[in-house]
Each structure stands twice: as structure tokens, then as C-alpha cells.
């Protein structure tokens, strides 16, 4: 029954959830209400913290169709977070329709007078009878076009914050302490809590306001919408729905929705989404005529496939170009949170929970402390009953021991190290929007780098050109700025095949296009708005050579008149990362026929050219350049048929243009390494942190850059995995080959990790991921270069690396790396633009030197968290031991003693011991990831035993002294004062709790010194943090407290006439720790297990003479068989 009723929402997507339906049950509600009354409201709080318990205790299970309440289990990394959402019923379907309905859904008017839906993470899910499940039916129910980031009121935030279990526990503690007349300490805790809550409220409110302001810039604007009979109506953007045709103003606008261009061209700045500040040209959606056929002619619109025609919400339209009498129009396709910007905002509003072993272990450790408190609770009750203590005192003192064991200042103390690390990162230009990730960065052991703009300079320099004529290469030339090349198709392709535009008189566009065009020396002119209005069609962008390049002799015919030699760009097919090419249709002034020019990845361009025009040694020449690390672009040309008119070209599919081209040659661009790159990568390698290159560039170029920067040492072998998808009934195959011919020395005999590296392109990665899933884990273990990777493949690679238990960092320039930056444990963007909102970290320094800094600070923050947690745990246990010993003589620590310990010692030490800066260099050893480990547990347990031993000895030793006097209700033994001396006071009021006795004083001083000693022992310095003696606030605090305690103990003032000598020598502790803690442990991470297995596998790595063929097995996915080629 349960399995049948279990529904899956968003199957296969990032937000996949399981849904269970429930119906409210009256008798269960009554029982819960009674329980809430009996527990004084505590049961209500428990159900608030545990929504799953709340639903199951008040509802009965039912089908999803009949549900009144749904329970969602959002699966994130195998963990579940439960959210209960009420099903809402709309009053009438007609509310959702202001315009005509889609016929597909008209039947809903009659079948469902009421619509059932629920809202989760700003998305509405509607019940669909056809599929018997809830769906996001955006086609029908659009709602208001608004990305509503509601800033909660301070009152709502306050209630939510105060209902946190920690603050409830503090409230319980304060009430208990007040009942026990511990007013001073109760006030101090209230004061601390108020400051903590106020700070938290301020931070949360500020984040909401910042996000609201970022979104509000385009939330409500006036837009022009085309209605029937071409009427233009101005409406608010909030009233837009998919299907509306909007007019893009010529002076630009910020898009309030996602829309696809159907006429005209736009120049858009998409930096808000992609991080790329270079303006992008958006062209209108192709509109094939009735005679056109092909896959794309009748294919449905897809955002990914047609993103070069899509204007995304939040992006800035800088300028438009349009037909006279026909405005630049776009059809709204997505609104509100469904838009690209809406998805980004949702990912910020509802981030994935960070699952880190430290936090899981911290909860386990707290549970252990609670168990210890439970023992003390029982001990206190039993002891009090045996001594016939009044019931009120038994309740207060037994509950008090729980508040002593679980430290109230723990969350604030744990946060201190992260806050200090965040400030230090900010000082070196690294900004963080997810502070909890700083600790996780301390565990990073693999970093993925984008190439262009990250490892190498953003700008490309033209190294040279190599033209092709009659199917053979010319010698390479330095540039194309020559008189004899002005009329060549090669230069015409360089001058026209780009997406450059003029913004305020300055050429702007892709850096590669800019360098290529500048190398020709040509001039680009765009038609003004006035010129465009004189023509009945869009005015083309015109390029022409400078006059000094024109030959002086007059031309023979008007067609050859060089004084008027210019080329108009008629149509652009923008660059597509999926297709790896771009093309244009252009016409020479005076010519009737048009020309098509194409540039792109050499392998792609060559495959679209006539075979006879591609030189036979094309592969060798290309390989020669890419091995040297050059970026190579191929050019091609085709003379179009005379029947292709201007209007036909505007609607033709690019596949018809990009075929049967003539190969023109190669442009060789040089992409220099950034000067900081080799040094940083060397530092990471020394620290045993793997480095991986993920790029959209050519594979051989990427391998060359990887060798140049030291990512692949020169003596190591690179094995390229070429995967072929299944075709013609044959299974998928992987062929293995060397990137460069190694010598015949047996390089692969010694099985050391650094001797070989795998390289593959995006297509091979996709085939391996689909057909060789078990092979993929082995490949990523030594995969160093991943080339021609699409943005979603970068994200998949991050997930694959995380799947073998790597802690993955990702460093990119933000252009195509947003998904990978968000998915990685520590994503750092080198872009300062708004896209950095998607990345946990953003660096103001535009090079990878920020990566080691982030890891160092992460390690320092992580070690600080361990130190603070251990210190706070020991503080609780030390105080617990003191109080337990004093309970045995019906005594306790005094109010001012608690206050002195918690404020003057604990808080001061915690907030200063967290100030140690990060160590100056990365070391090869990583800090532990969790608290539940041998060395850490040994450290804590031995300290507990030492503290217990010294306190017990002190407690027993003081009672053996000849001057010891047993405390009596009317005797202040420490002051040797009888009731006669204090006859003016009420003696029982002076020391009603048996505070002023020898045991109390002795344990108080010993425990104070123990707190300081434990702080010094646990305040770990190098190799992850600077030594404690360089942390002057901590040194000053510790020394001052030592001096103060020694002074008040030795100086005979008031109540002290005896002193305790409790010097604890812990020098032998570290030696004992080294002897007892095991050095070698079995590897826990999957990549370590894999490395061990592969080290004894005789067939790994695959030899270049082998082919790996997929052998599908339905029961367990797939396997493979290695075959030796004959």
C-alpha cells in the first residue's frame, strides 16, 4: 500500500522528491492537543522541529489524490529533509483564465471545479488526473510574473530564530537558574542570547534585503505587448504570461521574463547570469518556409538548443536592430520563478544543505554529553533522596546538572573561527556568501580549473595564419594585414565571421573575435537608426579595408572598384558551444550572389568541408600546433546559390548553409599562461592536492597547457580515451592511445599514481558515463584533462569526482562554470559580477592564487572548530566533575564562580583562541574531517581522565588536612567565621547552598587552572594555523588570567587564607599521544580503495593497443571487456 501511494516529483531532476499523501484525523488531533497541554507546550515545539512526526501523529495515510496534507522527502545525497505542505483548493478554475484557453485543458473546466495544489520552494505543484500525480503545470497556471523575494518581518524572523532548539534550551536553563537564584549568570546568558539573536536577525535581514534589491531592479516595469490587429498595449510586466508578444525598445531594457526573439536582433549583456561581461548578439528564431524540411524545421522550442535566440530574465538589452515597420519582437516563454534568473534566485533562497562529517559528529558528541548529563541527573536524584533533600531542591539541582553538561555558548564559540576566517578572506579579496563552506574547504583534496581566463590569460594574441589553396597549406604567415590578401576569401572570412558590434563607438564582443578582426586592420560600420528607417529591411553591418591597403591603380570594372570595396553581413548564425562553430552570410557590394563564411573548431570545420579542399596533412599540422599549446581556429567559405534572396536567407536553417564548404586555412592564436599559474599548481601538488583541467578548448591544446603549467609532469604519459557510441548494432567502444609517442621504455610497469594521466573530450565523457559507468570511476581517478566539455558535463564531472569521495574545489571565470561552481564543495569564481551570487566564493584577484589561500583559511577554520569544540566539551566535563564532586557533600559552585568561569575565562579564551591566522603555506597533510576519530577521541578522553584525577585528588586531599573543618549551616569554614561574628545577618541566607567551604574553594581554583591548561593544549598551531604565541590576544588573555588567579590565590585577601598548589605538567601527554595513536589506517575514501585495487590490476591502465567494448547487463548496469587489436 505504502509503495503504491508513493509518488515521485521532478523525476530525474535536481529537485527530485518523494511524496506521500495524508488526511487529517480528528481523534489524533485531539490526542496531540491533550499532549501539548500536559507537556506545557513542549510537544508542540517537538512537532514543530520534526514535521514528519507532526504529520504522522495528526494524520492518517491516504492516496495522493485524496490528500489534504503531503509529506515531501527531498533526497539530497541519500539524506531526506521532510516538509509538510497543506493542499490548497482554488475557488474556481475560471480565476486562472483571463484569455482564451488551450484546448488541451478545456476539459478541466468540467472535470475539476476546484483545483488542488501545494507550494514548495516558490513553485506550485498541481494535481493532474491524467498522470495521477502532482506536476508543475506552467502551461496553464502561470500566476503573476514576479520573482517575489519577500523580506520577512523582524517579528517573523525573531519567532523563527527563538524557536531554535538551542534557544529553547537556553530559555529552560535561564528559568531553572532563576529558580535556583543564579540571577547573575541567568542575566549574563540572556544578554549573550539577545546579542546572538540580534546579530543573527541583522545578518539574515540584510541578506534578504540584498537579494530583494537585486531582483527588484526588473520586477515591475512597463512593457509593450502586441495584441490583435497589431495593437500595442502598455501593461505592467507582472501581467505578462507565456505566449505574449512583447516589443523590445530600441534604447534597451532589462528583461522582466524569458522571451525568444521572433524578429530583429538584440545585443545583450548576460553578465548577471553567466559572469561573462562580453555583450552577446541574439538573433531571431529561424522560421523555415513551407518548403523547408529537416529536423529543426518542425522541432519544438528548447531553451538550451535555442539560447542564442533567447533573451533571459534579468539580462540587460543594450541595443536592438530591426526591420522598418516591423518592431523587434519576442515571445514570452517563461515567467516568474520559472525563468533563468528565477531558478538562480531559488537556488540562493533554498540552498542544498551542506552535509559535512564535522557537523554530524558534533551532534553525536552532543548526544554523548547528554548521556553523561543523564548519568549525572540520576546520580544527583539518588544522592539527594539518600540525604533527604527537599523535593524542590532535588528537581532544581538534578536539572541544573544537564545545563552544566551541555554548554550554552557552544554555537557562538563554533561560529567564531568561521567569522574570523571570513574576515581574513575578505582582507585578501575573497568574498564568501556561504560561511559554512569555509570549513569544508579545509578538506579539499582536488581542484578543477577552467583553462581560458583562469589558468591562461583572457586575451588571445594572433600568432600567425596558415592559408590553404588548392588543397595544400601555404607556409605560415605572421599576419593577414597585407595588400595582396585584401581581396582573398581568407581575409574576408576573418573580417566578417564574428559577432562584434559597436557600443558607444567602441568595438565590443568576444575577445577572440576582437583579436581576429583587429588583425585584418579592417573597419566595421553599423547602420544608424535613421539610416535603417530609410530601407524596407534590416540594414547590414558593413566591413571594409582601410584605404592604405587598397591598390592605387583603378579597377577595370565597377564590380572591382576598390574604393567602394566593402562587405555587408546579411545574417549571423552565432557561435554555439554545442556545435563548436559560427557562420555568417555576407555579400560583397555590387555582387548579386552571397557568400557563407564559417569559423570554428578545426575538426568540426574540416568535417563540413569538401574533402578535396582539406589538405592531406591537415591532422599533422593541427596536431603540431595544438601540442605547442596554440589555440587553432579553422576558416571555411562557400559561394551561395543565386536563388537565395535576402528574405530567404533570413529564415533559412544554418544546416543548409554550413555544408559543402571550401577549407580556407587556420588561424593560430596564442593563449599565454598567467604568471601565477605554475607556482600555484606547484604549491597544490606539494600539498598532495590533485589538479584537473576542465575546458571547452581542443584536447591537444589543453594537454599542452597542462604540461606547460606543470599539471602534467614532462616525464608522465598521457592516455587519451576515445569513446564511440553504439551504432549499426555494434556496442559502445573505447579506444586508447597515447597523446604523444612515448619512448619504448616500460613506463607503465611501475604502478605509481603519478606516471599516467587520462584525457578525454566531452563526447567521450558522455559515452563513458552512459555505457561504462563502472569504468568512469577508474578514469576520474587519474583523469587530468577534460576537453570540449559542455557546461552540464562540467557539473557531471564534479559529481563523478564527489562520487569517489573527493572533496572537490572548482575555480572558473564564471562564464560557463556556474553549475560546476555551485555543485563543488568549494566553488570560487574569478568574476566580480553578479553571477558570483551563484558561487560560494568570489575572488577579486583575477588569478588562481586565491585557491591556496582559500584552502589554507579553510584548514585553519576547520582546526579552529575542532579546537573550540574539544575545549568546550572539556569545559563542560570539567565543570560537570566539579559539580558532581560537590554534590556529594551537598555543595555547589556559587553564582559568581559560575559567572567568572563562563564569562571571564571561557568566552574570553574561546574568542581569542579562534584568532590564530592560517599557516603561511599548504602542507601535504590534511586536517581530519570528523570528530569521531582515534587521535581526537584519545586526546579528549586522556584530558578528561587527567582532569578527573586531579580534581578527585584535590577533593580528597583537602579533606585530609589537619586544618580541615566540615561545613555546618552556621559556619563559614573558609573564613573561620562563627555565627556570632555575623549575628546581624541571616546565616542561612549567607550560605544556604553550602558554597563557602574548603572543597568548593579548592575545586574552583583547580578547575580554573584546568580550563586554561586545556585551552593551551588544544590551541593547536602549525601545520594548519600560526603558532599560538603569535596570537597576542590569546596570549595576553591566558597570561592575565594566570596572574589574576595566582594573585587572588596567594594574596591573603578576605576569604582566602589557604591556597592550593595545583601545577599540572602535561609535557608527557604529546609523547603518549604519538605512541598510542595509530599512524596507518585503512583508507575510508572510495578513491583510495580504487587506487589500491588498480595498483595490483595487471590490465590497468589500458594499453594503446587495446579496445574496451561495452557488454550490457540489465541486472547490474554494464560491464566491459578489454580486447587486444590485431
From TrEMBL:
InterPro entries on file: ATPase_P-typ_cyto_dom_N (IPR023299), ATPase_P-typ_P_site (IPR018303), ATPase_P-typ_TM_dom_sf (IPR023298), ATPase_P-typ_transduc_dom_A_sf (IPR008250), ATPase_P-type_domA (IPR059000), HAD-like_sf (IPR036412), HAD_sf (IPR023214), P-type_TPase_V (IPR006544)
Membrane-topology annotation of the record: Multi-pass membrane protein
Biological process annotations from GO: intracellular calcium ion homeostasis
UniProt xrefs under CDD domains: P-type_ATPase_cation
Domain P5B-type ATPase N-terminal: 13-128
Pfam families in alphabetical order: Cation_ATPase, E1-E2_ATPase, P5-ATPase
Record carries keyword Transmembrane: yes
Keywords carried by this UniProt record: ATP-binding, Endosome, Magnesium, Membrane, Metal-binding, Nucleotide-binding, Phosphoprotein, Translocase, Transmembrane, Transmembrane helix
Residues in P-type ATPase A domain copies: 223-348
UniProt GO cellular component terms: early endosome membrane; late endosome membrane; recycling endosome membrane
Enzymatic class: translocase
GO molecular function: ABC-type putrescine transporter activity; ATP binding; ATP hydrolysis activity; ATPase-coupled monoatomic cation transmembrane transporter activity; metal ion binding; P-type ion transporter activity
Reactions the enzyme catalyzes: putrescine(out) + ATP + H2O = putrescine(in) + ADP + phosphate + H(+)
Localisation: Early endosome membrane; Late endosome membrane; Recycling endosome membrane
EC numbers on record: 7.6.2.16
Record field: transmembrane: 29-50, 182-204, 362-381, 401-421, 862-890, 896-915, 936-958, 1002-1019, 1031-1050
Family annotation (PROSITE patterns): ATPASE_E1_E2
Function text: ATP-driven pump involved in endocytosis-dependent polyamine transport. Uses ATP as an energy source to transfer polyamine precursor putrescine from the endosomal compartment to the cytosol.
NCBIfam families: ATPase_P-type, P-ATPase-V
Protein family per UniProt: Belongs to the cation transport ATPase (P-type) (TC 3.A.3) family. Type V subfamily.
Name listed for the protein in its UniProt record: Polyamine-transporting ATPase 13A3
Source organism of the structure: Amphiprion percula (Orange clownfish)
